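From the shared-data thread, chain only:
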Amino acid sequence: MNCAILAGELFDGVHPEVKRDQVILTEGERIRAVGPRTELRIPPGYRTLDYGNAFVSPGLVDTHLHLSIGGLPEDDEIRREDNHLTILRCANNARRELWGGVTTVREAGAKGILGITIRRAIREKIVPGPRILICGQPIIITGGHTHYMGVEADGPEAVRHAVRQQVKTGVDWVKIMATGGIMTPGMSFGAPQMTRGEIAAAVEEAHRAGRKISAHANGEEGIRDCVEAGIDSIEHGIGVTEELAREMEQRGTWYIPTLGAIHLIAVDGEKDGQSAQAVSKAKEAVPVHRRSFEAALGARVRMAAGTDYKHPGLWLELRLMAEYGLAPAQALLLATGAAAEFLGMRPRVGTLEPGAFADVAAFGGNPLEDFTRLQDVRLVMQGGELIIPCSGDSSVP
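Structure, as tokens:
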């Protein structure tokens, strides 16, 4: 189906400026043209979708989430839950992300072959969901952070073997847990876990296999070990200092801060059933996390948006980025064009440009004025297919 989407306000994912009264022409699964309504002619036979009072953007990109986790205690969702129930949870969370305007994601770690399974189910249209890249099972030291969903490996050679195992299963990225975290009981969120030798082995083996590698890393020592080993991205990064931020910028290390996840556990964790220990650690981490983000921002470290916790949650991530000093338009770029660049998927996704996939979202107000408006979804198109409103619905809100 070919469509002409009329946009009152348009954010193209490339530039921070908002354009007014634009038309997006989609042809099949791709964008054919974008331009002013006064100049771009709508070809005969195109279906017109009038979003003249809405804010239109590329489909959003979330670079760090876990479809098997949805804000409930990990102990219930990962350790005790039957895999059959967990895959249904994954499918439900994938649908919620897509209906929330998120058309591309990176699944940042799941137990067993859950990531492989949900990726295949989405690709084969068994279940609706975003376009998906997967990290597979994270590689963890014995008893380390989230050991209950990862591959435990000790020593450089065992880590190499674990990386090769993940590559064999068909992962898009490799993920390591280099330090402690918030959710696992009995450990400091900033305690180093993997040794420098183990991290270096993981990086070397992933890159040898043509995969990028990300590290869950908190605390100055653990982050430094990962950056110096050549890791491609630091996830969370609670403990990035100004010196480390400068090193990351010089090396081209990406930073995925996931501010919203820690904030939500600190604020709503008790209500959500999280352990008192997790809530206490999150409360301790929030101010450190903010300083880390500010250090990365000041050093111009390359960043992309990721949520990690609830589905969908980009509105909160971007709101916190703006509160912590990033211009709102720059924050939205981190969930569109910059996020796609990080994933190696630009210009196919993340932008409204000719030749890109026709991934389009429309919202009931300008999120650059208030990011909560990202929750007011009026249109979702993925690869030229109408998701909201459904393709069989002739009405347009």
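The CA atoms of residues 31 and 217 lie 38 Å apart.
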